User: Fold this.
Amino acid sequence: MQTTDFSQFTLWEARFETNDLTPPPFSHYYHLIIRKEATDYRAAYELTYTHREEFTEEELAEEGFSPNDNRSCEAPLHEVWIAQLEKLMAQTQPETHPRKPAHNFLELHTVTLSGETQTFAPKNRTAWELLLQQVVQGLMETAKIEAPLVVGYTWQKHGKQQRYDIRWQFADRTAMLMHAGATHAVSWQAALAIMEQSFMIETDVEKAAPQPKSGDQISPGDGLWYPLLSGQQARWHSLKETIAKLAR
Assistant:
């Protein structure tokens, strides 16, 4: 039976690569290493984009990339993420079937204090991909490479403009809702659900403004406010209801 207690690991690794059907400039791989130190855990992350040799800088820019998108960082990893990794390890069984071309490559590798090693592809690959994305984001925040995500929402209610801001802090897996001078803690799962809903809202990028105006708008963390496109009211109403309830 595989060990799931991180205190028993001297090394824990994850290697990921996009599936065979993902073309450049989107194709990439990453390597995440976690080591136990005297008082905490330290993680190193390296991201490399692949097969971009034939792309010009202009072609990369058209896809939203640059020639310098590879990333690396090293920083302490908060214990809350260690707990989440342990939890998922306990739910994980090795994959026994060959990887399909449409599936991403993911491999976990562990070394215990006694020197025992294990390398396997997890059967619950999608759950691991989602968790590792969050772990990496938290690591990037701790390393000061990226800032916590803050999304703003504004709409009218009873003739007055209402504003809500939600801050996702991946470094320690916490989320907060700010409204009318008050701050409310939000559970992580609820915050992730709001994030997913938020980025499903389609906005009018041509009418983006640095300051919010009257009406329904969202600011996705880039410093600009975007009005909604037509046909978004059902999604927007559901999102507004969810956010407003959290502030009560």
The chain has two domains: 6-142, 149-246. The CA atoms of residues 60 and 66 lie 6 Å apart. The radius of gyration is 21 Å.
